[in-house]
Design brief:
The chain is mostly beta strands. 0% of the residues lie in helices and 51% in strands. The strands form eleven sheets. Strands 1, 10, 11, 12, 13 and 14 form a six-stranded antiparallel beta sheet that branches. The protein is globular and about 80 Å long.
Length: 527
């Protein structure tokens, strides 16, 4: 089993919560607006603020989940301007514990499920600590002998007395010295050293009840690396995107790595530059300011959003660039509809989100958020966008507005003002509450006569007699009006197909347990 789990920006399924509120779908965000740092809980289904609580520390940038995702109990608040983190309960956000650190923290969104450990990296040095999720104590450390500001060297310099660093980072991604943490396996992790432009790979072993770390190898990259992600199809293949540098005109790159015997090996890379068209219509797309990297739901393509306002689509198999298209300034995050065709790019420095078709890899539409800027943050949209069903959720950070975009109508359809500058968080779904919302969608809105149609469904009840039916639009829910139907065979999430439908206006409807009460409906046309 692959133990690599990135928890930031992912939905957390909680099996049991002791003091549940009525809301079952909650977004929990950190707000780093000094001096009023706080933690926010929002019912994102009903678009309502649940509560807000003050938190200790300066620049609380992250609200990272701690422990096993299905039974998460704690949130770790990460104040990047302080030398500690604090832990709070997921269910009511109450204070649990303060943990002092040997550095200023960066993020702790990497979980080792085999040993129940969290990897927390530093913001002011290329270092990390390992936290035991049961005791909430530090049980290992790494990188404290790494010198910094050595980015011109091809071999890392170590110094066992290097206790008070003054590290700097020169590439696009800001002043943070470490990138996002990642477990490469249950016994291997990486520190992304932005000061020296290296990826350091460490192995762990347990000695006398404590975890010891050992540097296995270091990989030099063309510029600082922000993040590494796993390939969902393989336990030993990984991808990372470097940031590039606007001042030196250094392009961002996508790297492909392979973990071999506890060491990481570069097996390919691609600079983000693509020329399209011929002669007078020739246009070159260049990617500088690489941020996070994402892989499509079918695991075939990598999407790299760059601050230069271009998204690159790269084949994961051979790193060939499939396409590039313009988006907004400060593009940094990409989300995909799991069963639909759309994806959304978060543009940190522009007043719109960009919708694209991830099946054709083409631009669709810019959706303007049109909220007021309050001038208290340089970031317009937060680092934690999320898609569930037909909705895209995110914060307008410089103004404190949580908003929702309907991906069926491609419109901004709801928002709630909470103030401050909420910047990063997670989305939680409480599964011990009522049945989650059933959702269905079709792969297209319009079909040709007798064309095959795929219907995707989520959150069915899971009985052997749940079913999906096709009806003429506007007809009643009874057997006489069923045009075509399929059992879901006890699956809560999957798809069914229909074909040979004549011209007309139709609806697909989802039903539980052989009944005629529709749980979800969507319209389509056959022409």
């Amino acid at each position: 089993m692959n133990v690599i789990k990135r928890t930031s920006m992912a939905i957390m399924f909680l099996a049991s919560v002791s003091s549940m509120m009525s809301a079952k779908s909650i977004a929990i965000f950190a707000d780093e607006h000094n001096p009023n740092n706080r933690i926010l809980a929002i019912d994102y289904k009903n678009m309502e603020l649940i509560d807000e609580n003050p938190v200790e520390g300066s620049l609380n940038h992250h609200a990272d989940v701690i422990g096993e995702v299905k039974n998460a109990k704690y949130i770790m608040m990460v104040p990047k301007g302080s030398n500690f983190v604090t832990f709070r309960k997921v269910d009511d956000r109450s204070f649990v514990k303060k943990l002092n650190l040997p550095f200023q923290p960066r993020s702790g969104d990497a979980y080792n499920s085999k040993y129940n450990l969290t990897l927390l990296t530093a913001s002011n040095r290329p270092s990390a600590v390992i936290i035991d999720n049961n005791s909430l104590k530090i049980v290992g450390r790494a990188g404290f002998n790494l010198s910094c500001n050595q980015y011109t060297l091809n071999k890392i310099v170590t110094n066992s007395t290097f206790n008070n660093p003054s590290c700097t980072a020169s590439d696009f991604g800001g002043s943070q010295i470490s990138g996002h943490p990642i477990w490469l396996s249950s016994k291997t992790f990486a520190i992304l050293d932005r000061s020296n432009k290296f990826v350091h790979v460490y192995g762990i072993s347990k000695v006398d009840g404590e975890w010891k770390t050992k540097l296995k190898n270091s990989i030099k990259t063309n510029s600082s690396m922000h993040q590494i992600i796993p390939d969902a199809r393989s336990r030993n293949i990984f991808y990372g995107m470097t940031e590039g540098n606007f001042n030196t005109n250094t392009l961002a790159r996508i790297y492909k790595f392979k973990l071999i015997h506890g060491k990481l090996k570069t097996i390919g890379y691609r600079e983000l530059s693509l020329t399209k068209g011929l002669f007078l219509n020739k246009k070159t797309y260049k990617g500088i300011g690489g941020h996070n990297l994402y892989i499509t739901p079918n695991n075939r393509y990598l999407y790299g959003a760059t601050a230069s306002g271009v998204v690159f689509v790269v084949k994961s198999k051979n790193l060939h660039i499939k396409n590039a298209f313009n988006v907004g300034k400060g593009a940094g995050h990409v989300n995909f509809m799991k069963h639909g065709k759309y994806g959304v790019v978060t543009n940190h420095q522009d007043a719109f989100a960009t919708v694209f078709n991830w099946r054709t890899h083409k631009f669709v539409k810019n959706i303007y958020t049109k909220f007021d800027k309050e001038g208290i943050a340089s970031l317009l949209h937060s680092h934690s966008p999320y898609i569930e069903g037909k909705y895209f959720y995110n914060f307008w950070t410089d103004g404190g507005v949580f908003y929702r975009i309907n991906l069926n109508t491609l419109t901004l359809d709801n928002s709630v003002y909470v103030g401050g500058i909420p910047i990063q968080g997670n989305y939680y779904k409480f599964l011990n509450s009522d049945q989650s919302e059933t959702m269905i969608n079709t792969n297209k809105k319009s079909y040709r006569v007798y064309e095959k149609m795929t219907v995707n469904f989520e959150n069915m009840q899971g009985t052997s007699r749940d079913w999906i039916g096709v009806f003429r639009k506007g007809t009643q829910n009874n057997w006489y009006n069923v045009v075509a139907w399929r059992w879901t065979y006890g699956k809560k999430e999957s798809n069914v197909t229909f074909k040979y439908l004549p011209r007309g206006q139709y609806e697909v409807r989802a039903f539980f347990n052989n009944k005629y009460k529709p749980e979800a409906t969507i319209s389509f046309t056959v022409k």
